[in-house]
Amino acid sequence: MWPIRSLHLWLGAGYVALGVVNASITVYYPEGQNPFATTTAGAANYTGAAAYDPTTLQPPPVPTGQVFQYNVPLQNGGTPGLSIPIPAGFLGFSIEMSVVNQVVGKNSSIIQVPFLNLMSNLQQRSGRVLVRVGGNTQDTATLVPSTPDGKILEKDIAGASGPTQTPPLIFTPDLLTMLRSVSSFVNVRWFLGIPFNDTSNWRLGIVESGQSIIGDYLLGFQAGNEPDLYARHGHRPANYSPTDYFNEFGQLAQALQADTNVLNPHQLIGPNIASADWQPDQVWSTGFITTYSADLAFLAVEHYPTDNCFAQFGVGNPQDPQALFGQFLSHSFQQGLVAPYLASTLLAQQSGKQFLMMETNTASCGGFAGLSDAFGAALWGLDFAMQMAFSNFTGALMHVGGQSVFYNPFTPPPTNQSTFHQWTVGPIYYSALVMAEAMGPSNDTQVLDLAVNNGSNYTPGYAFYENGNPVRLALFNFNSDPSGASTATANVTINNPDGSSATPSQVQVKYLLAPSVSQKYNFTWANQTFGDVFQSDGRPVGTEQIETVNCDNGICSITIPAPGFALVFLTSNSETETAGAPSTTFATTAVTKLHNTASVDPAVLATSNGHTDMGDHVGSTSPGSVSGATALVVVPGLTVLIAVVAGLAVVRRGML
Ligand SMILES: *[C@@H]1O[C@H](CO)[C@@H](O)[C@H](O)[C@H]1NC(C)=O
Ligand SMILES: *[C@@H]1O[C@H](CO)[C@@H](O)[C@H](O)[C@H]1NC(C)=O
Ligand SMILES: *[C@@H]1O[C@H](CO)[C@@H](O)[C@H](O)[C@H]1NC(C)=O
Ligand SMILES: *[C@@H]1O[C@H](CO)[C@@H](O)[C@H](O)[C@H]1NC(C)=O
Ligand SMILES: *[C@@H]1O[C@H](CO)[C@@H](O)[C@H](O)[C@H]1NC(C)=O
Ligand SMILES: *[C@@H]1O[C@H](CO)[C@@H](O)[C@H](O)[C@H]1NC(C)=O
Ligand SMILES: *[C@@H]1O[C@H](CO)[C@@H](O)[C@H](O)[C@H]1NC(C)=O
Ligand SMILES: *[C@@H]1O[C@H](CO)[C@@H](O)[C@H](O)[C@H]1NC(C)=O
Ligand SMILES: *[C@@H]1O[C@H](CO)[C@@H](O)[C@H](O)[C@H]1NC(C)=O
Ligand SMILES: *[C@@H]1O[C@H](CO)[C@@H](O)[C@H](O)[C@H]1NC(C)=O
Predict the structure, then answer these.
(1) What is each CA distance from 515 to 59, 241, 433, 481, in whole angstroms?
(2) Cα 302-521-425 angle, rounded to 5 deg
(3) Contact (Cβ atoms closer than 8 angstroms) between residue 306 and residue 613
(4) Is 567 strand, coil or helix?
(5) Cα 523 to ligand 9 centre (Å)
(6) How far is the CA of 7 from the centre of ligand 2 (A)?
(7) What number of CA atoms fall less than 13 Å from residue 586's CA on the CB side?
(8) Peptide linkage before 563 cis (omega within 30 of 0)
(9) Which letter, b or e, does each residue of 279-310 get, where b requires 16 or more Cβ atoms within 10 Å of its Cβ?
(10) Which one-letter DSSP state was computed for residue 518?
(11) Which domain of life is it from (predicted)?
(12) Which run of H or E residues covers position 222?
């Protein structure tokens, strides 16, 4: 447990300055997002970090003409249209490389306990968790034997270049050892990226060391990150084409084969396009998959539904999150996000490849205050994940960007507040938790979008099949209506192939709930929560509540509050809460005050996430566009406090 719990600070009332600053390193924050700024104002005048912005939107009005009572007829065996069997751990995370030393740990012996707990909750349900460490910062990162100050990750300030003055990262093998350390506690499987900025001098150290250090826990390496945006961002000539990427990928594959320190040259992931300036078929038509089949461990894309780049950097089109909110809460929006990839997921199947969504979230350039961090985003993330699984994606990773973004699934406290604050768990983490439970650990689960309620946009439903039989059922209600008039009731029946009833006498139901789609924090999953801002050590809190619904006359009537989500367990052995691994939590039994390794990389916001849906506008890292450097203020002086893993404390107490 954290030692200081009496200082219960509510951020909306402003930060309270406490503690001692005793380090002096340079940290960059986007302008207006200094997490240490003191404010006594409400949301309108909030100047603190985006990750704790108190802005609250209005819930969208309840669309008219809806029907709230409907039947959900399910069938054992013979149901058409199911997805392929989906590997366990479908919904994982993508951690921007430059914040990995804040989110995962300081080094291989000091790992963030809340991170382990958050991963453990997922492992317990799905057996494993997929995490990518990368992003735009991967492309210029360089593995070095050591850094002058002993940190695992540093910015090479002297090497800063380009209009954004984005300093490249240097990192040490201990960063890789840290990832391997995590996997010795929780079954996290990692994706990394090979720096792709310099095709005449490939820097393959991350592969050489990564494979030998992380071993089987390392699943693959991205070759390039959003290469379709390289030209727009000034990292390649303006005419850089899918054929150029195809050729560079080939050069990388050859370089890996020629490198005798590379244990396995066949772990590449491509093309990782943002589907902004190129569409997938433009890459496929180069012969990418057939030519490089032996080198490719996975096919992957990255994509955000929209962007908030105008508000952050003045590029792209202005967006009104309030106007967008209703879109995110409609099933057809999620279907529309996935539709451009249906031909690709079919091609992947025909090619014997898995197909990943390597990086996504609500909106690039940090997401939207009040939307990305509200309960609606949890429902959106869950529907989007289920839609991807139904559409034969085999995994999807939600991006984690640090203090300066709104959409984080989880955020460690600002470094000098960690003596009195815990982590903040956002809506997207709840999406991942519930998705893990809906899918379970079998690797054989098949998903079907049921188009229930006559394909209603606001009350979608999915079923999850094992061996051809439905075992779990997901029912959404995107409406926000405190009157109760929009509470949905689904009459669920299950038939055998011969038409006889297979409806059980009772089913169990777990709910994901909040009073409104615009509520921030305190969401509940089966009555358990990760609490308010700064309240979580990664373990769900509260008494678990699983409803039992009796099924009379072969009908199970399931109510879904507005808003809400119900996961219905249809058979006696379909519960997955501990199907993946025994429940394991990590307590913080030791707390050490240490100098900070962490510094917030302006590139996280300035260059991350693809700037999709910006039409022809110039991205923020392009020459002549808004300079990231001018959008930054320098905050000197930080102190960090990191909890030491209980298990590690036992093993490695001598080191502390
Ligand atoms: C954290 O550091 C900032 C910048 O030095 C400072 O302004 C702020 O007061 C500190 N906050 C705490 C709680 O120490
Ligand atoms: C924001 O600050 C202005 C000027 O200090 C003040 O008049 C206004 O009430 C504040 N707004 C909120 C929402 O606190
Ligand atoms: C659902 O089932 C209940 C109870 O069996 C019944 O009263 C109700 O009419 C049914 N609703 C629909 C839409 O069939
Ligand atoms: C991790 O950091 C701590 C504190 O700086 C240090 O004592 C320890 O040696 C480091 N561990 C490794 C493996 O470098
Ligand atoms: C690629 O990035 C590395 C590390 O920042 C840098 O040293 C190198 O000059 C870059 N190469 C190109 C071609 O930009
Ligand atoms: C997923 O793949 C299966 C098997 O090939 C296919 O029948 C189904 O139509 C695909 N689903 C979608 C949404 O494309
Ligand atoms: C699911 O697949 C993973 C990865 O191949 C494997 O480690 C795990 O054992 C499989 N789980 C089951 C239940 O077969
Ligand atoms: C179902 O939706 C279609 C259009 O999407 C509509 O034409 C039809 O009337 C609806 N059926 C019912 C029973 O509501
Ligand atoms: C969350 O719950 C805490 C009590 O644990 C309460 O103080 C806080 O006001 C709640 N926040 C919201 C947004 O409901
Ligand atoms: C839900 O959790 C709260 C907090 O732990 C507890 O007080 C309450 O009894 C729980 N409700 C049910 C129905 O278990």
Answers:
(1) 10, 48, 19, 9
(2) 50
(3) yes
(4) strand
(5) 10
(6) 26
(7) 25
(8) yes
(9) bbebbbebebbeebeebbbbbbbbbbbbbbbe
(10) T
(11) Eukaryota
(12) strand 218-223
Atom index in ligand 4 nearest the CA of residue 108 equals 13
pTM of the model: 0.87
Cβ–Cβ < 8 Å for 421, 17:
no
The CA-atom distances, in angstroms, between 259 and each of 210, 234, 449, 580 are 14, 29, 46, 38
Least-confidence region, from 16-25, 120-129, 414-423 = 16-25
Residue count of the chain, please give it.
656
Per-state percent for the chain, helix, strand, coil, to nearest 5: 30, 25, 45
Q: State the virtual CA torsion across 512, 373, 621, 226 in degrees, nearest 10.
A: 0
Ligand nearest to the CA of 522: 9
Tokens (6 digits) for 414:
């600002």
| Residue from 436, 642, 417, 641 nearest 533 by CA | 417
Read off the pLDDT of each residue in 84-100 and give the average, rounded to a whole number: 97
Q: Is the minimum distance from the CB of 555 to ligand 3 under 6 angstroms?
A: yes
pLDDT tens for each residue of 113-148: 999 999 999 999 999 999 999 998 999 999 999 999
Ligand 4 atom with the smallest distance to the CA of 656 is: 7
Q: Ligand 6 center to residue 172 CA distance, Å?
A: 43
pLDDT in tens, 544-582: 999 999 999 999 999 999 999 999 999 999 999 999 999
- Mutation pick for ligand 7 pocket among 84, 86, 126, 128 (CB with most ligand atoms within 8 Å): 128
CB-CB contact of 372 with 406 (8 Å): yes
Domains in the chain with CATH codes = 1-38+594-656 (no CATH), 69-79+447-569 (2.60.40.1180), 91-443 (3.20.20.80)
